[in-house]
Design brief:
CATH class: Alpha Beta
Strand content: 5-15%
Order of helices and strands: EHEHEHEHEHEHHHHE
Largest sheet: 7 strands, parallel
CATH superfamily: NAD(P)-binding Rossmann-like Domain
Bound molecules: nicotinamide-adenine-dinucleotide
Number of helices: 9
Distance between the termini: 50 Å
Strand order of the largest sheet: 3-2-1-4-5-6-7
Number of domains: 1
Number of strands: 7
Shape: globular
Structural class: alpha/beta
Helix content: 40-55%
Length: 276
């Protein structure tokens, strides 16, 4: 019989005192984006959350929601794809909340279109926001994580980085695939230095940005019909919620995932596993 001292701990999802930098912690519209739901989830588990976004009002709304619940958060406003702003954002975050324990790379933009419809300028811009920004953030956090011998990075990719989703979304898909490989590289290089890195791969998630971007790819007759058409593609018969992605993020950044690095956690209701 096992002695009580040999019992493993309960699921260690507590994040008390961890400083988590969430790039894109606002939302494209009113409601729950993946970044906002992640920020609130981290705060509920005890983390100190740096809510970073180029949109001051939406970042502030995330911070307000956290403070209202008694959590710890601060807003930092800037463009995470511009090097000078990235340096400022990380310096401010460190000064106000402490060394960064977790980088959650959440920003992601796209433009519908295939190779013929995607200009070189659009491609460069989407790459800059989705991928080069991760390099800039890595330059900021990795030296500190190496010195401290601990750290955790997650990036939000997309099933669009693994599969063709039925309409052309070239720059988005290519850059989301790049996020995954970028994270795998970090994970391998620093696995023996106390740093873990993983990718969360959301499927079709019902967030406010969908109304602005991909809804018209599913129906010309408005958002409600687009939602139904989008939901129908998923084996579970529905889109995911921002919370379902946030909970996967919280698991990966917590000690519950202490032996997990260099992998992808797909949160997609089964869609990437299906044939038609
Ligand atoms: N919603 C989905 O169905 C879905 C599916 C798969 C992957 N994703 C990915 O999940 C992430 C979040 O998606 P969401 O739907 O919650 O998006 P969202 O657009 O609501 O949130 C992204 C936030 O990032 C901010 N942002 C964008 N560019 C920025 C920049 N350069 N600097 C600072 N802030 C910037 C925006 O202001 C916004 O608040 C994205 O990476 C997206 O590609 C979403």
């Amino acid at each position: 019989m096992m002695s009580s001292s040999s019992h493993p701990p309960g699921l260690p999802t507590d994040l008390t005192g961890r400083v988590i930098f969430v790039s894109g912690g606002g939302s494209a519209g009113p409601g729950w984006s993946i970044g906002r739901a992640s920020c609130v989830t981290y705060a509920r588990l005890g983390a100190k959350v740096c809510v970073v976004d180029r949109d001051p009002a939406s970042a502030e709304e995330t911070t307000r929601l956290i403070l209202e619940e008694g959590g710890i958060a601060k807003t930092f406003v800037g463009d995470v794809s511009e090097q000078d702003q990235v340096k400022r954002l990380f310096n401010e975050a460190r000064q106000q909340l402490g060394p960064i324990d977790v980088l959650h790379h959440n920003v992601g933009i796209g433009k519908v279109g295939g190779p013929m419809e995607t200009s070189a300028e659009d491609f460069d811009h989407i790459h800059k926001v989705n991928v080069a920004s991760l390099l800039l953030a890595a330059h900021e956090v990795l030296p500190e994580m190496l010195t401290r011998g601990k750290g955790n990075i997650i990036a939000i990719s997309s099933v669009a980085g693994m599969r063709y989703l039925g309409y052309p979304h070239l720059a988005y898909s290519v850059t989301k695939a790049a996020n995954t490989q970028f994270i795998r590289m970090i994970a391998q290089q620093y696995a023996d230095k106390g740093i873990r890195a993983n990718t969360v791969v959301p499927g079709l998630i019902d967030t406010p940005r969908i109304a602005n971007t991909v809804a018209k790819m599913f129906s010309e007759n408005g958002l409600d019909e687009a939602r139904v058409a989008r939901d129908r593609q998923v084996p579970m018969g529905r889109s995911g919620t921002a919370w379902e992605v946030a909970h996967a993020c919280a698991f990966l950044v917590s000690d519950a995932a202490s032996y997990i690095t260099g992998t992808e956690l797909v949160v997609d209701g089964g869609i990437t596993g299906k044939y038609v």
